Please model this.
Amino acid sequence: MPRHQQGNVSFEVPRHWEDKTIVAFSSPSRSAKEPSASFVMTRDTLLESDTLASYADRQLSELSKRVDGFNLLEKREVQVGGARAMSLRFESKALAGPLVQRLVVVEDRRRAVVCFTATAPKSEAAQIEPLFDRMITGVRFDPPSGQGQAA
Model:
């Protein structure tokens, strides 16, 4: 079985299982009542009939149904780490106040997508969004095993 490594933890995973890794980071919170900024990466698989655009549209549809105060601000195609991506920017409401969120869906190899969700309190969004931009532009994808670097 292949071994999955995340930080200082590793474990074996059956070869045919899909990687549904969730990686989440958050800024230090100032108080329990204020939401902190966060950056989350998840993985998913495209349906047979999906394109990157149809997957992003389906995510938008689900968000509009499940997220309080959902308001789409921007939808555009971008490049992330040399791969095609869709960037969705929207506002929502949380118990602690309004949020600004960005969902960037990147098409990976083998009908997979990597999704990055950046969330900030609306009051801090202008200050934090350049940091999110830097995080997204710093994304890199390694070539598939056996390709890329010569020995």
